[in-house]
Amino acid sequence: MIFFYCLMFTSPFYHHPFFDRGFGSFTMVKGIGAVCAIYALFYLFSKGKVPNYFGTTRAKIFLVLCAWGLMSWATAGAMRSWAADPAFSYFSFLVLFFVTLTIIDTPKKIWWSLMSALAGVAFGALYMVREFQKYHSIYADLRPGAVVGDPNYYTLAALLILPVAYYWIRGLTDKFYRLAVIGMLFLVSAAVALAASRGGLLGLVAGIAYLVWQSRNRVRNSAILFVLIVLPMLFVPRSPLKRLLHPDYADEIGAQTREKAWHASLMMIEAKPLTGIGLGEFKPLLGEYSGDPNFHQIAHNSYLEIAAEQGIPALLLFLWLLWETFRALSRTRKIAVRSKDFFLFPMAAGLQCGMLACMVGDFFLSAEYLKLFWMVVFLSIPLEQFARQRARVKDTPVVIEEAVVVDVA
Known about the structure:
Radius of gyration: 21 Å
Helix content: 55-70%
Number of strands: 2
Largest sheet: 2 strands, antiparallel
Number of helices: 16
Oligomer: single chain
Protein backbone atom coordinates (compact mmCIF):
# COMPACT_ATOMS: atom_id res chain seq x y z
CA MET A 1 0.00 0.00 0.00
CA ILE A 2 2.90 2.35 0.64
CA PHE A 3 3.49 2.67 -3.10
CA PHE A 4 -0.12 3.67 -3.69
CA TYR A 5 0.16 6.30 -0.99
CA CYS A 6 3.36 7.51 -2.68
CA LEU A 7 1.40 7.76 -5.92
CA MET A 8 -1.22 9.89 -4.17
CA PHE A 9 1.56 12.00 -2.65
CA THR A 10 3.12 12.72 -6.05
CA SER A 11 -0.18 13.50 -7.79
CA PRO A 12 0.16 17.34 -7.62
CA PHE A 13 3.61 17.32 -9.28
CA TYR A 14 4.42 17.45 -12.98
CA HIS A 15 8.05 18.62 -13.11
CA HIS A 16 9.49 17.54 -9.81
CA PRO A 17 13.28 17.07 -9.93
CA PHE A 18 12.99 13.63 -8.30
CA PHE A 19 9.52 12.21 -8.92
CA ASP A 20 9.46 13.20 -12.61
CA ARG A 21 13.08 12.34 -13.21
CA GLY A 22 13.95 9.27 -15.24
CA PHE A 23 15.42 7.79 -18.37
CA GLY A 24 13.73 9.01 -21.52
CA SER A 25 9.98 8.76 -21.13
CA PHE A 26 10.24 6.48 -18.09
CA THR A 27 10.00 8.46 -14.85
CA MET A 28 9.98 7.69 -11.15
CA VAL A 29 6.19 8.25 -11.01
CA LYS A 30 5.62 5.76 -13.82
CA GLY A 31 7.82 3.30 -11.97
CA ILE A 32 5.74 3.72 -8.81
CA GLY A 33 2.60 3.21 -10.87
CA ALA A 34 4.04 0.01 -12.37
CA VAL A 35 4.87 -1.32 -8.91
CA CYS A 36 1.31 -0.52 -7.79
CA ALA A 37 -0.08 -2.46 -10.76
CA ILE A 38 2.09 -5.50 -9.98
CA TYR A 39 1.11 -5.33 -6.30
CA ALA A 40 -2.57 -5.10 -7.27
CA LEU A 41 -2.25 -8.28 -9.36
CA PHE A 42 -0.65 -10.18 -6.48
CA TYR A 43 -3.24 -8.75 -4.08
CA LEU A 44 -6.07 -9.84 -6.37
CA PHE A 45 -4.81 -13.43 -6.60
CA SER A 46 -4.06 -13.63 -2.88
CA LYS A 47 -7.59 -12.55 -1.91
CA GLY A 48 -9.22 -14.97 -4.31
CA LYS A 49 -12.10 -12.57 -4.78
CA VAL A 50 -12.54 -10.33 -7.82
CA PRO A 51 -14.02 -6.86 -7.15
CA ASN A 52 -17.01 -5.79 -9.18
CA TYR A 53 -15.16 -3.44 -11.52
CA PHE A 54 -18.28 -2.75 -13.60
CA GLY A 55 -20.75 -2.37 -10.75
CA THR A 56 -21.25 1.38 -10.99
CA THR A 57 -22.36 3.73 -13.72
CA ARG A 58 -19.20 5.77 -13.18
CA ALA A 59 -17.00 2.80 -13.97
CA LYS A 60 -18.88 1.98 -17.16
CA ILE A 61 -18.81 5.59 -18.37
CA PHE A 62 -15.11 5.85 -17.62
CA LEU A 63 -14.29 2.69 -19.57
CA VAL A 64 -16.33 3.83 -22.56
CA LEU A 65 -14.65 7.24 -22.43
CA CYS A 66 -11.21 5.60 -22.38
CA ALA A 67 -12.11 3.35 -25.32
CA TRP A 68 -13.41 6.37 -27.25
CA GLY A 69 -10.25 8.35 -26.53
CA LEU A 70 -7.91 5.54 -27.56
CA MET A 71 -9.86 5.00 -30.80
CA SER A 72 -9.66 8.73 -31.46
CA TRP A 73 -5.89 8.59 -30.99
CA ALA A 74 -5.51 5.54 -33.24
CA THR A 75 -7.57 7.04 -36.08
CA ALA A 76 -6.15 10.57 -35.90
CA GLY A 77 -3.46 9.91 -38.48
CA ALA A 78 0.21 9.05 -38.25
CA MET A 79 1.09 7.28 -35.02
CA ARG A 80 2.88 9.51 -32.54
CA SER A 81 5.12 8.88 -29.55
CA TRP A 82 3.04 6.65 -27.26
CA ALA A 83 4.62 7.61 -23.93
CA ALA A 84 4.44 11.36 -24.61
CA ASP A 85 0.90 11.33 -25.95
CA PRO A 86 -2.47 11.85 -24.22
CA ALA A 87 -3.28 8.26 -25.17
CA PHE A 88 -0.76 7.12 -22.57
CA SER A 89 -2.64 9.18 -19.99
CA TYR A 90 -5.82 7.24 -20.78
CA PHE A 91 -3.90 3.97 -20.49
CA SER A 92 -2.44 5.13 -17.15
CA PHE A 93 -5.90 5.99 -15.87
CA LEU A 94 -7.12 2.51 -16.83
CA VAL A 95 -4.31 1.00 -14.79
CA LEU A 96 -5.04 3.35 -11.90
CA PHE A 97 -8.73 2.39 -12.05
CA PHE A 98 -7.81 -1.29 -11.77
CA VAL A 99 -5.34 -0.66 -8.94
CA THR A 100 -7.71 1.53 -6.91
CA LEU A 101 -10.69 -0.80 -7.05
CA THR A 102 -8.48 -3.81 -6.31
CA ILE A 103 -6.48 -2.68 -3.28
CA ILE A 104 -8.76 -0.06 -1.68
CA ASP A 105 -10.93 -2.45 0.31
CA THR A 106 -11.19 -0.70 3.71
CA PRO A 107 -12.20 2.83 4.78
CA LYS A 108 -8.84 3.16 6.49
CA LYS A 109 -7.07 2.94 3.11
CA ILE A 110 -9.20 5.76 1.67
CA TRP A 111 -8.37 7.90 4.69
CA TRP A 112 -4.64 7.37 4.27
CA SER A 113 -4.89 7.89 0.51
CA LEU A 114 -6.48 11.31 0.95
CA MET A 115 -4.09 12.18 3.76
CA SER A 116 -1.20 11.31 1.43
CA ALA A 117 -2.68 13.54 -1.27
CA LEU A 118 -3.01 16.40 1.22
CA ALA A 119 0.59 15.87 2.33
CA GLY A 120 1.72 15.95 -1.32
CA VAL A 121 -0.13 19.21 -1.98
CA ALA A 122 1.37 20.68 1.21
CA PHE A 123 4.85 19.50 0.16
CA GLY A 124 4.33 21.30 -3.15
CA ALA A 125 3.28 24.39 -1.21
CA LEU A 126 6.71 24.43 0.47
CA TYR A 127 8.32 24.74 -2.95
CA MET A 128 5.87 27.49 -3.91
CA VAL A 129 6.56 29.53 -0.79
CA ARG A 130 10.33 29.06 -1.06
CA GLU A 131 10.34 30.07 -4.73
CA PHE A 132 8.38 33.21 -3.91
CA GLN A 133 10.68 34.02 -1.00
CA LYS A 134 13.76 33.65 -3.19
CA TYR A 135 12.69 35.43 -6.37
CA HIS A 136 9.85 37.87 -5.60
CA SER A 137 12.30 40.75 -5.16
CA ILE A 138 13.68 40.07 -8.66
CA TYR A 139 10.43 39.41 -10.53
CA ALA A 140 7.58 41.67 -9.44
CA ASP A 141 4.92 39.61 -11.21
CA LEU A 142 6.25 36.21 -10.06
CA ARG A 143 3.84 33.30 -9.93
CA PRO A 144 5.78 30.43 -8.34
CA GLY A 145 5.26 26.92 -9.60
CA ALA A 146 8.40 25.71 -11.37
CA VAL A 147 8.74 22.53 -9.30
CA VAL A 148 5.04 21.61 -9.14
CA GLY A 149 4.83 22.15 -12.91
CA ASP A 150 2.25 24.89 -13.28
CA PRO A 151 0.57 27.15 -10.69
CA ASN A 152 -2.85 26.75 -12.33
CA TYR A 153 -2.85 22.95 -12.21
CA TYR A 154 -1.42 22.98 -8.71
CA THR A 155 -4.34 25.17 -7.64
CA LEU A 156 -6.88 22.72 -9.09
CA ALA A 157 -5.22 19.83 -7.27
CA ALA A 158 -5.31 21.85 -4.05
CA LEU A 159 -9.00 22.67 -4.52
CA LEU A 160 -9.83 18.97 -4.69
CA ILE A 161 -8.33 18.22 -1.27
CA LEU A 162 -8.70 21.49 0.68
CA PRO A 163 -12.39 20.93 1.60
CA VAL A 164 -11.52 17.51 3.02
CA ALA A 165 -8.82 19.14 5.16
CA TYR A 166 -11.33 21.72 6.39
CA TYR A 167 -13.77 19.04 7.53
CA TRP A 168 -10.92 17.15 9.16
CA ILE A 169 -9.69 20.07 11.27
CA ARG A 170 -13.23 20.55 12.56
CA GLY A 171 -13.76 16.87 13.31
CA LEU A 172 -10.46 15.30 14.23
CA THR A 173 -9.93 14.93 17.97
CA ASP A 174 -6.56 13.23 17.73
CA LYS A 175 -4.21 16.11 18.56
CA PHE A 176 -1.33 15.04 16.31
CA TYR A 177 -3.42 14.60 13.16
CA ARG A 178 -5.44 17.74 13.84
CA LEU A 179 -2.35 19.92 14.22
CA ALA A 180 -0.80 18.34 11.14
CA VAL A 181 -3.90 19.03 9.03
CA ILE A 182 -4.18 22.60 10.34
CA GLY A 183 -0.55 23.26 9.42
CA MET A 184 -0.97 21.78 5.94
CA LEU A 185 -4.20 23.70 5.36
CA PHE A 186 -2.57 27.05 6.18
CA LEU A 187 0.44 26.19 4.03
CA VAL A 188 -1.66 25.16 1.02
CA SER A 189 -3.89 28.26 1.40
CA ALA A 190 -0.78 30.45 1.19
CA ALA A 191 0.44 28.58 -1.88
CA VAL A 192 -2.95 28.95 -3.61
CA ALA A 193 -2.80 32.70 -2.98
CA LEU A 194 0.73 32.85 -4.42
CA ALA A 195 -0.27 30.75 -7.45
CA ALA A 196 -2.70 33.55 -8.42
CA SER A 197 -4.91 31.41 -10.64
CA ARG A 198 -8.02 33.31 -11.68
CA GLY A 199 -9.81 30.17 -12.85
CA GLY A 200 -8.79 28.49 -9.62
CA LEU A 201 -10.23 31.40 -7.65
CA LEU A 202 -13.62 30.99 -9.33
CA GLY A 203 -13.53 27.28 -8.58
CA LEU A 204 -12.57 28.05 -4.99
CA VAL A 205 -15.53 30.40 -4.64
CA ALA A 206 -17.89 27.73 -6.00
CA GLY A 207 -16.51 25.06 -3.66
CA ILE A 208 -16.66 27.32 -0.60
CA ALA A 209 -20.18 28.48 -1.45
CA TYR A 210 -21.39 24.89 -1.73
CA LEU A 211 -19.65 23.89 1.50
CA VAL A 212 -21.22 26.79 3.38
CA TRP A 213 -24.65 26.10 1.90
CA GLN A 214 -24.54 22.45 3.00
CA SER A 215 -23.53 23.31 6.56
CA ARG A 216 -25.81 24.11 9.49
CA ASN A 217 -23.93 27.15 10.78
CA ARG A 218 -23.31 29.12 7.61
CA VAL A 219 -22.16 32.33 9.25
CA ARG A 220 -19.56 30.56 11.37
CA ASN A 221 -18.23 28.49 8.45
CA SER A 222 -18.09 31.53 6.19
CA ALA A 223 -15.99 33.39 8.76
CA ILE A 224 -13.64 30.44 9.31
CA LEU A 225 -13.11 29.86 5.59
CA PHE A 226 -12.53 33.56 5.00
CA VAL A 227 -9.72 33.56 7.56
CA LEU A 228 -8.20 30.29 6.37
CA ILE A 229 -8.36 30.74 2.59
CA VAL A 230 -9.41 34.21 1.45
CA LEU A 231 -7.46 36.31 3.95
CA PRO A 232 -4.01 35.18 2.68
CA MET A 233 -4.92 36.56 -0.78
CA LEU A 234 -5.11 40.07 0.64
CA PHE A 235 -1.45 40.02 1.66
CA VAL A 236 0.35 38.72 -1.43
CA PRO A 237 1.45 41.19 -4.13
CA ARG A 238 -0.16 39.31 -7.05
CA SER A 239 -3.09 37.34 -5.73
CA PRO A 240 -5.81 35.76 -7.91
CA LEU A 241 -8.25 38.31 -6.50
CA LYS A 242 -6.08 41.21 -7.64
CA ARG A 243 -5.52 39.62 -11.05
CA LEU A 244 -9.27 39.17 -11.48
CA LEU A 245 -10.29 42.66 -10.34
CA HIS A 246 -7.27 44.64 -11.61
CA PRO A 247 -5.67 42.74 -14.50
CA ASP A 248 -2.38 44.07 -15.84
CA TYR A 249 -1.15 43.97 -19.43
CA ALA A 250 0.02 40.35 -19.20
CA ASP A 251 -3.35 39.30 -17.77
CA GLU A 252 -5.17 41.03 -20.61
CA ILE A 253 -2.99 39.28 -23.18
CA GLY A 254 -3.67 35.97 -21.45
CA ALA A 255 -7.42 36.58 -21.61
CA GLN A 256 -7.22 37.44 -25.31
CA THR A 257 -5.18 34.32 -25.99
CA ARG A 258 -7.77 32.18 -24.27
CA GLU A 259 -10.61 33.76 -26.24
CA LYS A 260 -8.71 33.11 -29.45
CA ALA A 261 -8.17 29.46 -28.51
CA TRP A 262 -11.82 29.06 -27.51
CA HIS A 263 -12.99 30.47 -30.85
CA ALA A 264 -10.72 28.05 -32.70
CA SER A 265 -12.06 25.21 -30.54
CA LEU A 266 -15.60 26.02 -31.61
CA MET A 267 -14.49 25.96 -35.25
CA MET A 268 -12.96 22.51 -34.73
CA ILE A 269 -16.19 21.28 -33.16
CA GLU A 270 -18.21 22.73 -36.03
CA ALA A 271 -15.93 21.06 -38.59
CA LYS A 272 -15.96 17.60 -36.94
CA PRO A 273 -18.72 17.47 -34.30
CA LEU A 274 -18.92 13.67 -33.97
CA THR A 275 -15.33 12.45 -34.15
CA GLY A 276 -13.29 15.56 -33.41
CA ILE A 277 -9.90 16.33 -34.95
CA GLY A 278 -8.18 13.50 -33.05
CA LEU A 279 -6.83 12.97 -29.54
CA GLY A 280 -3.69 15.04 -29.01
CA GLU A 281 -4.16 17.08 -32.19
CA PHE A 282 -5.37 20.33 -30.64
CA LYS A 283 -2.03 22.11 -30.39
CA PRO A 284 -0.71 20.96 -33.79
CA LEU A 285 -3.88 22.04 -35.60
CA LEU A 286 -4.68 25.17 -33.60
CA GLY A 287 -2.76 27.37 -36.01
CA GLU A 288 -4.82 26.10 -38.93
CA TYR A 289 -8.18 26.71 -37.26
CA SER A 290 -7.23 30.04 -35.65
CA GLY A 291 -5.80 31.57 -38.81
CA ASP A 292 -2.44 32.11 -37.12
CA PRO A 293 0.16 29.48 -38.16
CA ASN A 294 2.35 30.38 -35.18
CA PHE A 295 -0.43 29.94 -32.61
CA HIS A 296 0.08 26.63 -30.77
CA GLN A 297 -1.20 26.08 -27.25
CA ILE A 298 -3.81 24.19 -25.23
CA ALA A 299 -7.47 25.22 -25.19
CA HIS A 300 -7.49 26.45 -21.57
CA ASN A 301 -10.91 24.82 -21.29
CA SER A 302 -11.26 21.10 -20.57
CA TYR A 303 -14.73 20.83 -22.04
CA LEU A 304 -13.91 22.57 -25.33
CA GLU A 305 -10.67 20.64 -25.73
CA ILE A 306 -12.40 17.28 -25.25
CA ALA A 307 -15.14 18.19 -27.73
CA ALA A 308 -12.65 19.59 -30.26
CA GLU A 309 -10.31 16.57 -30.13
CA GLN A 310 -12.76 13.70 -29.58
CA GLY A 311 -16.12 15.08 -30.62
CA ILE A 312 -19.33 16.00 -28.81
CA PRO A 313 -20.07 12.36 -27.77
CA ALA A 314 -16.85 12.31 -25.74
CA LEU A 315 -17.78 15.61 -24.09
CA LEU A 316 -21.19 14.22 -23.15
CA LEU A 317 -19.54 11.14 -21.64
CA PHE A 318 -17.16 13.34 -19.64
CA LEU A 319 -20.00 15.54 -18.37
CA TRP A 320 -22.02 12.45 -17.47
CA LEU A 321 -19.05 11.08 -15.52
CA LEU A 322 -18.72 14.36 -13.61
CA TRP A 323 -22.42 14.35 -12.79
CA GLU A 324 -22.44 10.72 -11.65
CA THR A 325 -19.39 11.27 -9.45
CA PHE A 326 -20.89 14.38 -7.89
CA ARG A 327 -24.20 12.58 -7.25
CA ALA A 328 -22.43 9.56 -5.80
CA LEU A 329 -20.50 11.73 -3.35
CA SER A 330 -23.76 13.44 -2.43
CA ARG A 331 -25.40 10.06 -1.75
CA THR A 332 -22.41 8.98 0.31
CA ARG A 333 -22.54 12.19 2.35
CA LYS A 334 -26.26 11.72 3.07
CA ILE A 335 -25.79 8.06 4.03
CA ALA A 336 -22.99 9.05 6.40
CA VAL A 337 -25.19 11.73 7.98
CA ARG A 338 -28.13 9.37 8.50
CA SER A 339 -25.93 6.63 9.96
CA LYS A 340 -23.87 9.15 11.97
CA ASP A 341 -20.71 7.86 10.32
CA PHE A 342 -18.41 10.72 11.25
CA PHE A 343 -15.40 8.93 9.78
CA LEU A 344 -16.64 8.78 6.19
CA PHE A 345 -18.63 12.02 6.25
CA PRO A 346 -15.65 14.45 6.04
CA MET A 347 -14.23 12.59 3.07
CA ALA A 348 -17.51 12.40 1.15
CA ALA A 349 -18.57 15.98 1.87
CA GLY A 350 -15.09 17.38 1.27
CA LEU A 351 -14.57 15.56 -2.01
CA GLN A 352 -17.99 16.68 -3.24
CA CYS A 353 -17.04 20.33 -2.67
CA GLY A 354 -13.65 19.69 -4.24
CA MET A 355 -15.23 18.12 -7.32
CA LEU A 356 -17.49 21.13 -7.80
CA ALA A 357 -14.52 23.49 -7.48
CA CYS A 358 -12.58 21.46 -10.03
CA MET A 359 -15.52 21.39 -12.45
CA VAL A 360 -15.70 25.19 -12.39
CA GLY A 361 -11.94 25.51 -12.75
CA ASP A 362 -12.07 23.24 -15.81
CA PHE A 363 -13.78 26.06 -17.70
CA PHE A 364 -10.49 27.96 -17.65
CA LEU A 365 -7.89 25.17 -17.77
CA SER A 366 -7.29 22.09 -19.88
CA ALA A 367 -7.22 19.83 -16.85
CA GLU A 368 -8.86 16.68 -18.16
CA TYR A 369 -5.61 14.79 -17.43
CA LEU A 370 -5.20 16.04 -13.86
CA LYS A 371 -4.04 12.97 -11.92
CA LEU A 372 -5.64 13.80 -8.58
CA PHE A 373 -9.00 14.43 -10.26
CA TRP A 374 -9.11 10.89 -11.64
CA MET A 375 -7.96 9.46 -8.32
CA VAL A 376 -10.90 11.18 -6.64
CA VAL A 377 -13.30 9.76 -9.24
CA PHE A 378 -12.00 6.24 -8.62
CA LEU A 379 -11.93 6.59 -4.82
CA SER A 380 -15.56 7.72 -4.85
CA ILE A 381 -16.57 4.19 -5.90
CA PRO A 382 -15.33 2.26 -2.82
CA LEU A 383 -16.19 5.23 -0.61
CA GLU A 384 -19.89 4.87 -1.46
CA GLN A 385 -19.72 1.09 -1.06
CA PHE A 386 -18.21 1.42 2.42
CA ALA A 387 -20.83 3.96 3.46
CA ARG A 388 -23.64 1.60 2.44
CA GLN A 389 -22.04 -1.40 4.13
CA ARG A 390 -21.40 0.44 7.39
CA ALA A 391 -24.93 1.90 7.39
CA ARG A 392 -26.41 -1.63 7.32
CA VAL A 393 -24.53 -2.60 10.45
CA LYS A 394 -26.21 -1.63 13.69
CA ASP A 395 -24.21 0.50 16.09
CA THR A 396 -21.71 1.48 13.40
CA PRO A 397 -18.55 2.50 15.26
CA VAL A 398 -17.70 6.16 14.86
CA VAL A 399 -14.45 5.98 16.80
CA ILE A 400 -11.69 4.99 14.41
CA GLU A 401 -8.17 4.23 15.54
CA GLU A 402 -6.53 6.46 12.92
CA ALA A 403 -8.71 9.52 13.43
CA VAL A 404 -11.24 10.00 16.17
CA VAL A 405 -13.88 12.35 14.81
CA VAL A 406 -16.85 14.20 16.20
CA ASP A 407 -19.63 16.31 14.70
CA VAL A 408 -18.31 18.05 11.59
CA ALA A 409 -21.48 19.42 10.00
